Amino acid sequence: MLDPEKACLVNCELFGKHAGLFESAIVPLWQGVYDSLVQRARIAEASRVLDVGTGTGEVALRLGRLVGRKGRVVGIDAQPEMLQIAMRKAKGDGSGNVEFKQMPMEEIKLPDDSFDSVVGNYSLCCCMDYEATLTECRRVLKPGGRLTYNHGGPSDPLAYQVITRIFEDYKTTTPTKKLSEIREASALQSEAVQKYRDPMVTLDTLRSIGYGEAEATVTQRVIDYKDAGSFVDEWISFDWSSEVEEIPSPEMKVFRKEAIEALRPLSKVEGFRVEADEVFFTGLKR
User: Fold this and answer.
1) Considering the entire predicted model, what is its pTM?
2) Range of the domain at 189
3) Domain at 184, CATH number
């Protein structure tokens, strides 16, 4: 039985393994999501901003352009491979006011009252202790500072539900010890954040921790893929890569064909569009 700390290490190892794929295949699809978060964060010029779970730094680099030379942005992440990519991008952009540090968002090793804003793009939904993360974000905010973050709503989009249901029939029933551990770590992480997909639960939590003017805004996240096959391939190569390693190649070809055929009718636009509920949460440090 894994403890939360071990589960976190297992999950982080998987993200590190696929950091390059994340940057090349997923980041380009999420540009609109990054822009929307930054717009909602209301970042002021010359302010200090913390980006929790920064990944490969897309949000942090946008924030750096907003705060200007007199401002400062710090992006934190537990995954070194993600941060290496973020640092290369910052150097290439000449973003001297953005720095990246390796640390978990559940235990932010930065001083109290040191940031005007804290933001997070689909990062709190990856933590192992949601309340600890919110508490740490509040601690490092200056009085009156603003927290802004997003994650998925109470239910998954139909496309996710369809492809997941089909894939269940192809997963091995005799996993290796490694895959069993990965499954357990994933289940623990999902359990840790599942109830916070309900906006009312999260708002109550924000208020109990001490955030003022806590608000939740439900909107739609839209991701456009080239076609249904591209959507399936993303799941095969990234989200389910460990499962796929233990499924015979001929079976995966059958799965891919079945999934594409089931998904095609779900998109009403050219290519393949996936729409999902997205919730933006905000709160001020009282």
Assistant:
1) 0.95
2) 4-285
3) 3.40.50.150
Task: Please return the burial class of 96, using the count of CB atoms within 10 Å of its CB with bins 0-12, 13-18 and 19+.
Answer: exposed
Q: What one-character DSSP code corresponds to residue 275?
A: E
Give the chain's length: 286
Taking a C-beta distance cutoff of 8 angstroms, is the pair 83, 52 a contact?
no
Structural domains of the chain, count:
1
Closest to 138 (Cα-Cα) out of 120, 118, 124, 122: 118
Distances (CA, A) of 91 to 88, 95, 97: 5, 6, 10
Q: Cβ of 153: how many Cβ atoms within 10 Å?
A: 18
pLDDT in tens, the chain (286 residues): 788 878 888 888 888 899 999 999 999 999 999 999 999 999 999 999 999 999 999 999 999 999 999 999 999 999 999 999 999 999 999 999 999 999 999 999 999 999 999 999 999 999 999 999 999 999 999 999 999 999 999 999 999 999 999 999 999 999 999 999 999 999 999 999 999 999 999 999 999 999 999 999 999 999 999 999 999 999 999 999 999 999 999 999 999 999 999 999 998 888 999 999 999 999 999 9
Contact 170, 255 (CB under 8 A): yes
Question: Which residues contact residue 111 at a Cβ distance below 8 angstroms, ignoring those fewer than 6 apart?
Answer: 140
